[in-house]
């Protein structure tokens, strides 16, 4: 029997049809992978199933029964549960409170905290998670928070569990643990739908795969045994892809950027602890790590956004001083972690965004008056050079897709030919096509002799691009090795524990 | 100045702040800024006097005050939830509107846009036998109206509801992360409306206290920024009922000091009347800079 049957689902938004006449079936008790790029409509489809978004057409059957979910509550009552990509947890409340809220199973006018903690702790133990139910969620690691989300679903006796990009924030070890849990849940008869764009994981965990692209279902319910990473990639993108190809540096030059003794103290804690490195011309120095291990502060210090406790940064032998502006002039380029907060002003045009920070250079303004002709010519050139999909340079940046927004940032930073570039999360939230393109641009820039510091939470990306790979753990660089010396699993181990020694299998 | 009279005035001045603050806690904890408190208090104060004027019944006066407060609590909720007006702007707009509205109504009802005539108000105090015999505190307590005890009960009730009921848990969840609450099937908007009704009721009650307990009339703009002061108090008390009540005492004390200073020295009254507002500025500058309100303040669940 099918747990879920969605037929002819349509969802239109003012500018796009997010889900275009999609059929989707999931067998009972299987792990079904819904594959597709960012913006392919996977999440929208699942939100429709979960009653969070109303479809414009189509019908949904859950366990053979026609449904008409008006809100998540209806879906929960039918045994559905969804773990969102951005965890829906309240950091200041305890694990137990986060789990039971909404279905406390207690008298409305009296909430017995102890009883709730007891129930949740039992559930946690039954699944072999090691979490204290009285702890505040804000004190847990990302992996543990995800387990709280799963516990939330189990507490609600979910029969169908939707996981939206569950592995995006996890280390390889945590992914393995998650897969163990998923298999155990399957053996208990729970149907699992996992949304992802990671092909390897789809092949590893699922029983069937469905692929979406541009709001359409390309292939539905193919047995995973018949799939390869390559065949899925081609379905997902609609053309041949070279996902694993890369090239290492051939002409490493002199040291361009030399960092010594960087220490950043925040709230009395050393978040970056005496970090030193040097990056050569024509080298990509990649830093992998679980988010929140000092990457943000490292980036901020290197780009002059914060003043660290101690730091000496030389670019081409010259000591850098001052704030962000001084660093920019000193030849440090910055592709920020979060393009929406630091990279772009979304309510300004593409042209304006392309000269941000360089607007005072002689080329773009004289005595405070902008040279609009030059700015527009420059923006047009950037749009052409970086294949940015936009009708013209006067469009607001907010109307662009994530990938094209990122290209605007990159075209701005790279056009100034910085000697040393700090590149953080360059492909977060962009589609595979744009990712391939951005990787190519980075490699070209390196080959042209730039020194690049790459910081990314996407381990595949760091491994693919880095000539030298370092791992940051609790503010320290715990390992720095030439490319391809460590295995993915070893790197994951370093990211999680800060050391490379074998630990007991849990 | 006698310590007893200072203490008595402090407590009396704190009562409306405490009552309004408990309402404010329901609002802020559900992610609704308490910016509209001033309007709910002012309209409550007006409604209480109006009803007492018409019926001569003080109890009905209080009831009307509560209802009038609820009307504006609901209005604020409709503006910010249904029409998604920015909460600060919506609150300030309502506050300004109420000053104008009550002034017009006063002209309409009493033919005087400055003051209402004197009306029946809550007289007398409650004496609890044993308490009256405690030195210093006893005489002070025996001078307090029933509303003093109601205020204390409200602190306890708010604490209980907020932290020991499922309702409170859900409300706090909504205030912190409305989307999370909504994904668990909690009807976020409904709870927010309910919270604003409770907030309006208590703010209206606080307004009624000011007009027909502390005084026996309504005068133009008689809340005079107390609604805003409560907003600051809430932050100072970290959005906890007991904390907010202690903060209310601080502001009540500065008010009492101001009144006593006016009687003692021959300085211009306006000068000392600034005291509570100066305390407010000091508190904003030094004490509440790092206090964070609920993380989901002003947000509605994402679609």
Structure description:
- With 506 residues, chain A is α/β, with parallel strands linked by helices.
- Helices cover 33% and strands 27% of the residues of chain A.
- Chain A contains 17 helices and 22 strands.
- Chain B has helices spanning 3-29, 37-55, 58-82, 87-110, 137-141, 146-164, 166-176, 178-183, 188-214, 226-236, 241-264, 269-273, 275-287.
- The mean pLDDT of chain B is 91.
- The interface between A and B is medium-sized, with 32 and 22 residues.
The percentage helix of chain B is over 70%
What is the CATH homology-level superfamily of the largest domain in chain A? P-loop containing nucleotide triphosphate hydrolases
Order of helices and strands of chain B: HHHHHHHHHHHHH
- Overall structural class of chain B, as computed from helix and strand content, comes to mainly alpha
Overall residue-averaged pLDDT value of chain B: 91
Radius of gyration of chain B: 19 Å
Chain pair sharing the greatest interface: A-B, 32 and 22 residues
Counting structural domains of chain B, the number is: 1
Which secondary structure elements does this structure contain, and how are they paired or packed?
The complex is a heterodimer of chains A (506) and B (303).
Chain A: E1 2-12, E2 17-27, E3 31-36, H1 42-49, E4 57-62, E5 65-67, H2 72-77, E6 80-83, H3 95-100, H4 113-126, H5 142-155, E7 160-164, H6 172-187, E8 191-196, H7 199-205, E9 208-213, E10 216-223, H8 229-237, E11 255-266, E12 269-280, E13 283-288, H9 295-302, E14 310-315, E15 318-319, H10 324-329, E16 332-335, H11 339-343, H12 350-354, E17 365-366, E18 369-370, H13 372-385, H14 402-415, E19 420-424, H15 432-447, E20 451-455, H16 459-465, E21 468-473, E22 476-482, H17 488-497
Parallel strand pairs in A: 3-8, 3-9, 6-7, 7-8, 13-20, 13-21, 16-19, 19-20
Antiparallel strand pairs in A: 1-2, 1-4, 4-5, 9-10, 11-12, 11-14, 14-15, 17-18, 21-22
Helix pairs in contact in A: 14-15
Chain B: H1 3-29, H2 37-55, H3 58-82, H4 87-110, H5 137-141, H6 146-164, H7 166-176, H8 178-183, H9 188-214, H10 226-236, H11 241-264, H12 269-273, H13 275-287
